[in-house]
Amino acid sequence: MSTLGKTISLIVEIRPYKSLKQMLEAQHYMCAGCHKHFDDGKTLIRDFAQTFGWGKPRFCEYTGQLFCSSCHTNETAVIPARVLHNWDFTQYSVSQLAKSYLDSIHDQPMLCVSAVNPFLFSKVPALLHVMGVRKKISAMLPYVRCPFRRSINKGLGSRKYFLESNDFFALRDLIDLSKGAFSVLPVMVETVSSKILGHITEQCLICCDVGVPCGARQACNDPSSLIFPFQEDEIERCPSCESVFHKLCFRKLTNCPCGEHLRADEPAELVKRASSVLGLEVSGVLDLFGRGSGSGLLSGLFPKVKAENPREHKDGDNVILMDSFPPASL
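The structure assignment produced for this chain is given below.
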């Protein structure tokens, strides 16, 4: 922005601290706005005024510079850099030039959150939620192939940039999100998203033409519900033929119509693997105790015995075999 030879631009980094002396020396003791020397035109009255602080250089929190009292009238504004880095919406004292510039960009999508501070999404859930809804909108929008798109643009007004696939926000958007439960932005983007989804999937014969039926066919829970390209989070695909399924339909199928085994077989496969692993463990335990031989780890603790056929016994031994009982006595 340029006004009467004075220039100012977007600042998204917090200025490092400097003492008053350092700033005066850097500016050669001149106002950053009108370039008048801070000591020019000193009079007895001005000296008297400065003793009360009225004529001292004034600091602009946006530019990080000093201004005279004519160029800095103690107006205040929210500083974009402090919002992006600290989620701080305090009104800070700024120069007239800075105030005019910040007012002019208040509703312009000039703040790229991911470029300045990507960690802000994890610290502000509402911001992350709005960003997620914006991504859904941008994924659905290419499939609006009728005049309905014009009504979407009209409904968003100056916020048409929410239809674009990026994370640029205007300062007013972030200020609105700072209001918490009173914020209107989340409701607005959710309303737009639901209207676009309903239009494509239920209302418009032109736009719903991109939908395909569930690959489960007769086994589908809702055969009339088509699947659309932007519903990747709600569907499953056959790894072989790329057919798409509703997630619930996919889970109850064993095979895809193309013959490919689907995820329904996974539990059985897991049981088979578990049985195999357990079999190895049991085998290892038997080896530990000495399987069929007296050479196991604990074989020395027990006397060796000869394996006998249960039907072979010495005469006189009171051995009763289980199969010697008549069936009625069991």
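Interim note for the steering committee: The chain has twelve helices and ten strands. Residues 2-105 form a domain with the Herpes Virus-1 fold (CATH 3.30.40.10).
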